[in-house]
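re the bet — no i am not wrong, look at it urself. input seq straight from the record:
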Amino acid sequence: MTGADHQRPNGVHETFHRIVQCIPEGRVATYGQVAALAELPRNARQVGHALSRAGDDSLPWHRVVNARGEVSERGLDPLESVDRQRFLLEEEGIVFDRRGRIDLDRYGWSP
Protein backbone atom coordinates (compact mmCIF):
# COMPACT_ATOMS: atom_id res chain seq x y z
CA MET A 1 0.00 0.00 0.00
CA THR A 2 1.46 3.37 -0.97
CA GLY A 3 1.24 6.53 1.11
CA ALA A 4 -1.39 7.87 -1.29
CA ASP A 5 -3.49 4.72 -0.86
CA HIS A 6 -3.16 5.03 2.90
CA GLN A 7 -4.71 8.51 2.75
CA ARG A 8 -7.44 7.68 0.23
CA PRO A 9 -10.82 7.62 2.00
CA ASN A 10 -13.09 4.64 1.59
CA GLY A 11 -16.82 5.05 0.85
CA VAL A 12 -17.84 5.45 4.49
CA HIS A 13 -15.07 7.96 5.11
CA GLU A 14 -16.14 9.90 2.02
CA THR A 15 -19.68 10.05 3.43
CA PHE A 16 -18.35 11.41 6.73
CA HIS A 17 -16.25 13.96 4.84
CA ARG A 18 -19.26 15.16 2.83
CA ILE A 19 -21.25 15.67 6.04
CA VAL A 20 -18.40 17.52 7.77
CA GLN A 21 -18.05 19.81 4.72
CA CYS A 22 -21.63 20.97 5.41
CA ILE A 23 -20.96 22.19 8.95
CA PRO A 24 -21.01 25.99 8.71
CA GLU A 25 -18.38 28.26 10.18
CA GLY A 26 -19.12 29.06 13.81
CA ARG A 27 -20.98 25.78 14.38
CA VAL A 28 -19.94 22.34 15.58
CA ALA A 29 -21.25 18.81 15.32
CA THR A 30 -20.43 15.81 17.45
CA TYR A 31 -18.78 12.65 16.20
CA GLY A 32 -21.99 10.79 17.04
CA GLN A 33 -24.10 13.29 15.14
CA VAL A 34 -21.95 12.87 12.01
CA ALA A 35 -22.25 9.08 12.32
CA ALA A 36 -26.04 9.32 12.73
CA LEU A 37 -26.34 11.60 9.69
CA ALA A 38 -24.38 8.99 7.73
CA GLU A 39 -26.95 6.43 8.88
CA LEU A 40 -24.29 4.68 10.97
CA PRO A 41 -25.42 5.35 14.53
CA ARG A 42 -23.04 4.26 17.29
CA ASN A 43 -20.04 4.69 14.98
CA ALA A 44 -18.65 7.91 16.45
CA ARG A 45 -15.17 6.38 16.77
CA GLN A 46 -15.17 5.59 13.07
CA VAL A 47 -15.89 9.26 12.36
CA GLY A 48 -12.91 10.25 14.50
CA HIS A 49 -10.73 7.76 12.68
CA ALA A 50 -11.85 9.04 9.29
CA LEU A 51 -11.13 12.65 10.23
CA SER A 52 -7.73 11.85 11.72
CA ARG A 53 -6.71 10.25 8.42
CA ALA A 54 -8.18 12.95 6.19
CA GLY A 55 -4.93 14.79 5.45
CA ASP A 56 -6.93 17.54 3.73
CA ASP A 57 -6.81 21.02 5.20
CA SER A 58 -9.90 22.01 3.20
CA LEU A 59 -11.95 19.62 5.36
CA PRO A 60 -13.23 21.52 8.42
CA TRP A 61 -12.37 18.62 10.77
CA HIS A 62 -12.00 21.09 13.63
CA ARG A 63 -15.79 21.59 13.70
CA VAL A 64 -16.36 18.08 15.06
CA VAL A 65 -16.16 17.61 18.83
CA ASN A 66 -17.09 14.96 21.35
CA ALA A 67 -20.52 14.56 22.93
CA ARG A 68 -19.55 16.75 25.91
CA GLY A 69 -18.62 19.62 23.59
CA GLU A 70 -14.93 19.07 24.17
CA VAL A 71 -12.03 18.89 21.77
CA SER A 72 -10.63 15.35 21.65
CA GLU A 73 -6.95 14.54 21.30
CA ARG A 74 -5.95 13.22 17.90
CA GLY A 75 -2.93 12.41 15.79
CA LEU A 76 0.70 12.01 16.67
CA ASP A 77 0.88 15.07 18.92
CA PRO A 78 -2.38 15.11 20.90
CA LEU A 79 -1.69 18.31 22.82
CA GLU A 80 -0.78 20.21 19.66
CA SER A 81 -3.95 18.95 17.96
CA VAL A 82 -6.13 20.11 20.87
CA ASP A 83 -4.53 23.57 20.87
CA ARG A 84 -4.84 23.85 17.07
CA GLN A 85 -8.49 22.77 17.04
CA ARG A 86 -9.38 25.11 19.87
CA PHE A 87 -7.60 27.99 18.12
CA LEU A 88 -9.46 27.33 14.84
CA LEU A 89 -12.82 27.19 16.62
CA GLU A 90 -12.14 30.37 18.59
CA GLU A 91 -11.18 32.09 15.34
CA GLU A 92 -14.72 31.27 14.14
CA GLY A 93 -16.23 32.90 17.24
CA ILE A 94 -16.90 29.74 19.25
CA VAL A 95 -16.50 30.26 22.99
CA PHE A 96 -15.25 27.63 25.43
CA ASP A 97 -16.32 27.64 29.06
CA ARG A 98 -13.81 27.39 31.90
CA ARG A 99 -14.01 23.58 31.74
CA GLY A 100 -12.94 23.68 28.08
CA ARG A 101 -16.38 22.83 26.74
CA ILE A 102 -18.51 24.31 23.99
CA ASP A 103 -22.19 24.98 24.64
CA LEU A 104 -23.74 22.61 22.10
CA ASP A 105 -27.15 24.25 22.50
CA ARG A 106 -25.64 27.54 21.36
CA TYR A 107 -23.02 26.41 18.83
CA GLY A 108 -24.34 23.02 17.75
CA TRP A 109 -25.21 22.52 14.11
CA SER A 110 -28.75 21.49 13.19
CA PRO A 111 -28.83 20.39 9.54
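see?? The domain at 3-106 is CATH 1.10.10.10 (Arc Repressor Mutant, subunit A). told u. also DSSP finds six helices and two strands in the chain. so pay up
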